[in-house]
Write a structure and sequence with these properties.
Length: 268
Amino acid sequence: MKFAFNGATTMGANLAEDIVCAKKAGFEMLEIWKSKLFDTIESDGVEAVKELFEQNALKPVTINSIEQATFSNREEKFKECERLCELANTLNVEAIVVVPGFVRERLDEGTVVKESVEVLKQMARIAGRFKVKLGFEFLGFPDCSVNTLVLAWKIVEQVGEDNVDLIIDTCHFFAGGSKLEDLERIDASKIVIVHVNDLPKLEDVKDSDRLMPGDGILPLRDFFKTLRKIGYSGPVSVELFNERYWQLNACEVAREAFEKLKVFVQNS
């Protein structure tokens, strides 16, 4: 498996700091946080971003993210998709993270699948022009329209496009009630990246609850064993939204993230 770091973990740092600190810690890849990318492009230009990655020999693996991609203004989301895919092509980024929409009331599965498939098919056509993948990431929150691996996989299968794959996040996987048996049924070649984090609890989970791998209660060793069982060998990325880490030195956070991720990659 390849070691990746997500810019959400160090929200107080800028993109240049993320790149330098991730490389220094030992990571091979970085997931770019969208707002940091835009800030750096505005101040220094897109070529400066490309040079930063090249100088540090770090692979930009995803751009995070198109949020509320479904059950929202499709035209706006398609424009955002085009802009991010164009940047991804320029920067040699593999995939754009696509997040399903939140809904006020639970919808029947047929409605959710229909909306999600239609949006993802159109985004796939846009991404295809730029030779970029889309990673569909379900969120395990009750009010997210797609909050289980089973439903997300069903949608990706129905989309049926080579450039539309899954992203699995351990927080959302366990908080949303997905099971390891569900993961065993997934085609590992259709997983773009796995987000790794831990939780102190499983009820009423918030993004800000996320902890470093191994600091919570999640059965991460069993999760990694299942990843290996299905033959997954792609990127695993530490992604935290915990404000406590945002207040710390970015390089110290990246170093801790690498060391704690390594425990599970090497020993599971």
